[in-house]
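Risk register update: the risk of archive-format incompatibility is retired. Evidence:
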Amino acid sequence: MAELLKGAAVAAALDKKTTAAVATLRSKGVDATLAILRVGERADDVSYERGAIKRCSQTGIRVKQVTLPRDVQSHVFFSTLDSLNHDDAVHGILMFRPLPGQIDEDQARQRLFFEKDVDGSTDPSLAGVFTGVYQGFPPCTAQAAIEMLDYYQIPCEGKRAVVIGRSLVIGRPVSMMLLQKNATVTICHTRTQNICDIAREADILITCTGKMESIGKDYLRKGQTVIDVGIGWNEEKGKLCGDVRWEEAVDIVDRITPVPGGVGSVTTSVLMSHVAKAAERMMR
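Archived output:
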């Protein structure tokens, strides 16, 4: 049976470092602060916000919650975002997306100061991932996947890594981060031919397809480490599931992240670490 790479221990290790960093900042008169900007009441946004606030409390980071109605006028939204950008007491901004149709999401993404972009959504942040010069921050989910590999001491150098998915939230950035760790990286997507054959060649397989239980035994082999980034509610099974068909994978691969309890449990800890780092940068 595969070794389970659980996220709780990874999150705890990150939180310990962040708590120490936040305490050091406070001793210098700086209260690391995260602003959470949410429009509307999307259930997944509210759930993530609740988890982020709890993690802030655990690490000593202050929170400024800003909630706007779903039908908020565009100019009000951008005025609010600008206010947070220019508030020196705010070090990081978590802006929930997607935004409602009356707000230009690309404009919002670019209007956010990259120095406060703790979830890696602006172009300067993403450019930093590709160049290896982090002027902003990488997307939290992408970094969470890397944190899992680092914590469990899974070597990347010289290994073949296959990433299934090419989104700017996880697929492309995590591919670049693996490349910086000297892995040989292949990105697969919906138009990739012979995708199962390519996936089986991987030493490290990262799945971020957005399609629940779309990765089965045909993609897997003995010796692999599988990082399953997907998560969704399976009505038939009555539980949360990832991209990988757990029942098929667990007796084939060597190591795998569970869903839930894997990568998803690490993302808010990464977010906290970014807030602390943003506060440190603003002091310089």
